[in-house]
């Protein structure tokens, strides 16, 4: 299977490159040689063959290095471990799609319980994997086949990206620039590599591939239309000799933009890039007295095509949303097409009426301002959406959103400026080479820049701004770094007359025997230039990318084990896991069966709980179900994961659970899953989402300086009560399962608790992941002397062989009555309910004064809140 995929990729790469090269050479022959088109074409095609093979080999290597960590994906026990978080959700949607083909899931009630989530992921990525699975599986692919396709798909798309990068580089600086750009993107480290590695089955690499193909075809359309002197009059006269090639490239640009948009709803980012470029290019052409019809034609055709393609995927019930396929996406495509129409019309009017060029940008500015004013009056909500859209991409996130790793600024860490993440994604030499490349292209603006140069400059600059806002867009800027670095490298080779050396090689080397004679023409500066490029540009990216081949991330063994335990040992929630469900009507909630329940955990783990555990998380990596505040501390603290885990008492936490579900008779979750990271490093993120982070950690003098240690407020939090203290003393939460332990910060937290707050807990690492169940609790009642201190306790034995004491204490009332609510059953599990493997080793012991009494509690009493009399 693996070898056949490699052969298939190699064939695919070669055929795609060969086809594009053939199209381009056919254009050259048609333009330059009407007398001997066939023989010249064959000669040109033969001369391009080495470049075709070179790019195919580079693509093959790009694929191969991305498959090196396959051992961390295909585990020895047969489990397939996908990377990260969202890849698990794509596999979830892929399996639902194949189960119901061709119907896909748009609304999913199996996550963000009890609300469900509309899926904002584009349909194309899943459809491509589904079609591939159906073809390779002869119409009925098994799960192994589906998993294999899913695992290798990102690596294939990452390898295919070398093709558009090569052609962009080639048309910017010749074959040498194209080949160097292909090499640099093949080894590009950081986010581009991690999101295209085996097992990271996410749409991000599809974004990079299709957006780059879009820019490639848009560039080819501009070049072709400019060279042919295309005018709108050629459209009226149907001059196909002029129109055919630019038309094909423009259509392909529209198709690729549509593919990009159907991979990610945020695709209008590239509409903004193209529109900004268009304004710049129109202004430049107008000042030079040149026609911009070539630009108008390209833009109008490309976005007309994209408008037609995106129309069937618009969901009217989503209104004007940026995050789902809605009227917004159709409007942006139509608006972009209209923008090219207006810009071209104004430009032609300026020329026909001989209006001075400097009025052109002022006119455009006036139209934009007037349009925004009209929009504000007609539709304030859409105006607000348009105004705030750039900040969504370019702005630095604050509050809880700032704790999301991928949307934080690439230039800041802990509010301090840093270049470490920049160098980790692009290398120092690559990043500064990209800046140098932009500087050179900017200087060219004052000479006579080519449209492709202006396009690459605007494109690169705006993507650079996006990574200032969100470092996730580094997988876009990696393409720009590869192209710009190769452009700089190509200029260096031009300085040492590499073109002459290349021509000499072609003319003098006919066989290997001719190579020694050729070497005498190689100059020292040419050798040095090649070495500089290899050492400064290629080797650093190679070194960093190879470091990333050691593993793929994703859930470790403890989370896999915990989720599989949930799947096998908790009641069926009564939902058809692979069914396609209709979303609820506006203002309504999904009608869940009475058996449905949620699983409360931090949002990072929602997709694992759903996809591996087949259970319904309350929160997920779409940042749904987090709760907390978004505006200010004065806002109401909405119920959700952040408010539950930071709650300062069991009662407060339970109120959150009950508030999550709109049904007053049900709680939002039956199980709570915690891991050590939630109790330590990720705890700050929970507080950040509530906009109330103060007081959980306080400075303490340690002898060598102040150190921030967990405070009393931290240890009162529900997360600490559950994970650090094992739920000891809680009335309605019981530990039902834990995984094995690792050496973590947990022991340090316990040492602080014992030393500073008088605790007496064992200072050892416990289960990395712990699963708790929320129950009504059995009510143990009895009598003692009035105002007597009464204690109840039992020893809990976990499935890992660890023991700890569970205890509560209370004071009897004036008549001697006392009552405890306890969550553990001493009699074991019952059929159809939680099959827990963590339970008391014996009965509860109630003690007061010199009296001790044993109490046994059934599972029915715990689940139903029954009274147990002592």
Short overview:
The chain has 870 residues and is of the alpha+beta class.
Describe this entry's structure for a reader:
The chain has 870 residues and is of the alpha+beta class. It has 3 domains: 161-548, no CATH class; 557-772, Rossmann fold, CATH 3.40.50.12610; 776-869, Immunoglobulin-like, CATH 2.60.40.3390. The chain is 54% helix and 9% strand. The protein has 33 helices and 18 strands. Strands 12, 13, 15, 16 and 17 form a 5-stranded antiparallel beta sheet that branches. A hairpin with a 4-residue loop joins β7 and β8 (706-710). It is elongated and about 105 Å long. The termini are far apart. 44% of the residues are buried. This is dolichyl-phosphooligosaccharide-protein glycotransferase. It is found in: Cell membrane. Residues 777-868 form the Archaeal glycosylation protein B peripheral domain. It catalyses: an archaeal dolichyl phosphooligosaccharide + [protein]-L-asparagine = an archaeal dolichyl phosphate + a glycoprotein with the oligosaccharide chain attached by N-beta-D-glycosyl linkage to a protein L-asparagine. It is an enzyme of class 2 (transferase).
